[in-house]
Amino acid sequence: xxxxxxxxxxxxxxxLKIARKYLHWVQNSVLEGEISQANYVKLKTELSKxxxxxxxxxxxxxxxxxxxxxxxTLGLQKGGDENxx
Length: 85
Prior knowledge:
Blueprint: E1 2-6, H1 9-19, E2 24-27, E3 30-32, H2 37-50, E4 57-61
Antiparallel strand pairs: 1-3, 1-4, 2-3
Helix pairs in contact: 1-2
């Protein structure tokens, strides 16, 4: 899964803290990793409770298999150096 979020400044820190319980931080407002269905539901629930739908947004990219995914980084690498996908 890849999670991309855009939260207002007053909530962005809390959003990152929630997301890091389930996924690995790779750069500003982007996290990735494998996640169980149960944890995916928990993550969505926690972020939904925090967000203001009039100001904030969240995008979840899910993949059925790692076979057809590729990750390439150019420039400064932020976050962990794990290649999750």
